[in-house]
Each structure stands twice: as structure tokens, then as C-alpha cells.
Prior knowledge:
There is one protein chain. With 295 residues, this protein is of the alpha/beta class. It has one domain (9-294): 4-Layer Sandwich (Metallo-beta-lactamase, Chain A). It has seven helices and 18 strands. The protein has helices at residues 55-64, 82-85, 88-95, 131-136, 214-225, 244-256, 270-280; strands at 9-16, 33-40, 43-49, 74-76, 99-103, 111-113, 119-120, 139-143, 148-151, 154-156, 177-180, 183-186, 195-199, 202-207, 230-236, 261-265, 284-286, 292-294. Helix 1 crosses helix 3 (88-95) and helix 6 (244-256) packs parallel to helix 7 (270-280). The longest helix is centred in the C-terminal third of the chain and has 13 residues, at 244-256. The model has no long low-confidence stretch (mean pLDDT 96). Bound molecules: fe (ii) ion (FE2) (2 copies). The site of one fe (ii) ion has 9 residues, from helix 2.
Amino acid sequence: MINVGKADELKIYTLVDDYAGYNSPFWAGHGLSLLLDVVHDGRRTRILFDTASDAELVLHNMRLLGVDPRSVDMIVLSHSHYDHTGGLMGIMKELHKETPIFAHPDIFKVSFATEPEFLYAGIPPLRGGSKDEIGKLGGIWILTKDPIRLAPGAFLTGEIGEEERTSFERECLVGLYKLENGRVVPDKVEDEVSLACLTKEGLVIVAGCAHPGIVSIVKKAMKISEVNEVYAVVGGLHLVSADMQRIKKTIDALKGLGVQKIYAGHCTGLKAEAAFLEAYGDCFEKLHTGKVICF
Ligand SMILES: [Fe+2]
Ligand SMILES: [Fe+2]
């Protein structure tokens, strides 16, 4: 348990999602990037959560939303996948100031798909940059598997260990591999960390792709904070390749945990979004670029 504190206000800007919304001036693009404004006692902390696949998308949409990129105080990379890290280099060039970047220590691993052909899935060297290049642009790497507090109310879950995963979420839904001591082994995306923020309504859980399973992530955030009220889940839930049985189990478990609102997009998938809409009604909202959510 850590003393997570409590935010007075939380505002989430959807800077990039795969969908731009109906009749929208925003640019959609593969991946996810969210900006969190955490306000406590009149002080605001701006956390950039993921950088989508390209900085141009993030910066264009930031301009339309009237957000100055230099106002970002810190960056969180939820996991290594290029659709969450590809914008890092371009964003750091724009920020050009000393900026803490929080991620799991395995964020630089070599991760890839082999079907239909080889595809490198990790941080793209030209768009995401190397550890040293980002350091030269002011990035201060804080690489930890442990939970860590970022601002009053806001904290990272750290790694969700195998034993912490809910049984039906142990099967990883991405067909990826990674290199480990020169061997090719299945990649279960152990490097994924999520963000949570305790607001006056309860916990708001923010996930990049939720590869460890959204139910396991919610439970971990509850355990760290010792708070049982979960107000909302926001982000990508990676159910795009899940069967209906897993989708149903996920929805039942989230309802069982008392999660009141779902804002899902990116890799959630149409089938799961339709199921959430049916189960949650107006308490389900599809995430899209440009959407601003206030808590
Ligand atoms: Fe993703
Ligand atoms: Fe991912």
C-alpha cells in the first residue's frame, strides 16, 4: 500500500485514438495518447500518458485542444508497443526540457510478431528513440516495476505479476514474442503498467492496452490504494481478439467490482464495445480523439 492522496479534479484529454469521432477536425491514428490534468489544492500536474504511433498526430490534436505541449510535466509509457511509444522522440524535441519519463524496466525489450510476417512491435528507433537519445533531449528515465505516486491521487500500478492476474486473464491475447538471453519466447507484455487516480468519485483507472487484463489491473489499483470504490475505467482494453466468453467474463467481473463507467477505445474492439454498451448503457462511452472527460 502507498499513500496515494486524492485529487480535487481530474480532466482527461484524448489526444490520439484510432477513431477521431463523427464529423471531427481531429486526426485519428493507430495507438493511444491521453493527457491527464490532475488538480490538487489549486496546483495542476500534467501527465502525458502514452505518445501514440507518431508525434505529428499528438501535436496536431494538442493544438486543436489548445494544449501547450510544453505544459507537460511528466510522461508515462504504458508499455513498449510502437503505437504507444512512437511519438516519444518528436514530443521530447517539442518539450526540450527535463521531463521525468516513467516506464517498466523492460520497456526497451525486443518484441515482435512473426505472422503474417516479421513485425517489430517495440519502441521504434526513429520515432521513439533510444534511451540515450531521449536522455539528451531532457528525458529522465524512471524505470520501475513497483507502484509509484506521481501526484496527489495519481499513481502507477507497476507490473502486474503472473500470480496477480485473474485466472481467465492469464492467457495473453497478443501473439507476440520477445528475445530473452538470445532465445525467442512468448511475450506476455509483462512490461505494461497502468495509471490510476483517486478522485472524489472513487478510482479512475487508465490503461494503455490492458494486456495483463483490465480486471487484474483494476484489482491491483484497489490493492495499492486500499480504496474499494472504482468509478471509471478509461483506455484501451485489448479485447479486439477476445471471444464472447472472455468479453462477458470481463464485463461481469468489472460490474462485480462496482466499476460504474467505462470509456473504452483503441484496441477494445467493436464486439467488446457493443457488449459494454449493452451492459452499461449510457455509462459506456466510446473513446475518440478529441474527447475530454472531467471527473
Ligand atoms: Fe495498443
Ligand atoms: Fe499494446
